[in-house]
Amino acid sequence: MARAPQIETVISNFTPRFITSGVPLADFEEATAGLVDWEDWLPRWSGRAEIHEALGHDALEEARGLSAADHLTTAALLYHFAKFMAVQFPEAMRATHAKAVECHRLALPHMEPPGERVAIPFEGTELYGNLRKPSGIHKPPVVIMVPGLEATKEEIFGYAPSLLSRGIATLPVDGPGQGEAEYHLPIRGDYETVASAIIDWIESRPDLDTSRVGIFGVSLGGYHAPRAAAFEKRIKACVSISGAYDWAENWDKKSDLNKEVFRIRSHAKTLEQAHEIGKTLTLRACAKNITCPIYIAAGGLDRITAVEAANQLAADVSGPKVLSIIEDGNHVCHNRPYKVRPQTSDWLALQLGE
After folding, report:
1. Is 150 a known active-site residue?
2. How confident is the model over 68-83, as pLDDT tens digits?
3. Catalytic, out of 70, 150, 154, 232
4. Structural domains of the chain sorted by starting position, each given as residue range(s) with its CATH number in brackets
């Protein structure tokens, strides 16, 4: 029996993403083996998450903090990937998402270095983030981390260790249409409004160096980050990995699942309306305003965001730039993380150093 097209889309595009993000290979194999029906994706992945969640709670009860953090962050990641594209099953998706958030919240104080859940005021509501600071550094620089369309702060967490080890605090945030904000705030093209609110909050923290703020985005976040840098001049350095230059430009080439996920998270009633909203996610008129240093990375084999987007962004910015095309890289270069993660972390450490 043929697999559901949604399963084919997800596995063909995102298998390296699962493993690079921290999903144990055995859990991926057991969650997907023999999987045929899309409605079985969420419960299969949740079943694997429950194993790690139980191990995490056992470790907490026995005061084994580091082990608890490891088990619970893995559980959060598996719950996240259980629901990340399950927009056709909203009640199950939201309940599973709550488990991902809770597991990660429980893990935060036991991580090394520890983290804290933070609430950032934004347009009469709040955005939630997870702040971690490097050990032994007074007032470190901080990088705002922006996830992609189906990603959340619990997934982009995987990029944090290489920054923390270089003395940089990390702040993954669920922005409009993402993670905890996706239910009440739609995706929006003017991410500079979001970044400004986040930086206003950073400036309220005496333990962070507000003169050294960077922004780092992948996939849809790779659009949001340079968009923010074009308008918010408190941003001192920007990283964009596999970000769109004009998100709706390749609308007809996007998968049906990708379009539906965008429709739901942009709060559009129809795909036609979603397409119109997608047209607001563009750097065409503002990329020239990016004057801070920017590191632009893209995969030459990317089937989701054409590599031309990186070339166009690099051509338009007005400040210092690094353009890195990983010829054998896929979307976000998840299949070649060793060609992107250390390099962008080293670059950010240089740009945000004292």
Report:
1. yes
2. 999 999 999 999 999 9
3. 150
4. 1-112 (1.20.1440.110), 115-354 (3.40.50.1820)
